[in-house]
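To whoever is on call:

I kicked off a structure prediction for a single chain this morning and the downstream step that reads the tokens threw a length-mismatch warning. I double-checked the sequence; it's 281 residues and nothing unusual in it as far as I can see. Pasting both halves so you can look.
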Amino acid sequence: MKIGITGATGQLGRLVVEKLKQRVNAEKLVALVRSPEKAADLGIEAITFDYTKPETLAAGLQGIDYLLLISGNEVGQRKVQHENVINAARQAGIQWIVYTSLLHADRSSLSLAAEHIQTEELLKTSGIPHTILRNGWYTENYTASIPGAVGAGAFVGSAGEGKISSASRADYAEAAAVVLSSEGHIGKVYELAGDEAYTLKDLAAEISKQTGQDIPYNNLSEQEYAGVLTSLGLPETLAQAIASWDIGASKGDLFDDQKVLSGLIGHPTTSLGASVEEALA
């Protein structure tokens, strides 16, 4: 039984490989990556695998039984790229696909949701047994801004009082590793989110507590926040997208209190305090 991991050199992919190596023999793992040389430090077999070169994909999947399809990072290109992989998986006789989707993708107002739902539909019609991991927000999406917030003396966003049930990338990676290395998951859709929900005001309070500085949360309009991000050097389309995701958070798109993730991994998800501490370190 061989497990292929797409995007294995990405931020989530590397953590999945690390967690899988704790559960299965490294010889059973294959990194499916654009640049195999970047996977040299993973300590597993690496095969060239480029979502944008459909004619090469089936060959890359030969000998692989289970496939973790980590969603591509090119927003707007994902449906086509994922379709290429799913078609190749069918040709290569893949027995099971596990896909990383988005929390409540079927009812989320986030712009990211559409491509995830399209991919879920492709899996349904593919005839390949599959499992959907609907990952909630990564806490790192927010904690990455902490150094800048400390420097500026305020944390800014447009999420209002929206509750965010995020978890660390490592938590989601562990869930993927658990599912891929155990029985009884085929046909399931898992809504994965952190145990504790917080607002950005709560996050700012935690940063203040740990730094000993007064870091307030300043809630901006969507356009104001996009403008701040653009002024920091982000491309305008990305700035607009990030601001819109915060609006989604204000509508509850990032909230979930079912604790499915901690149930899967068998321990509480990483606390907000621990994630802030890591970002400050």
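Update from on-call: the warning came from a stale cache, not from the record. Cleared it. Sanity check on the structure: The longest helix spans residues 78-92.
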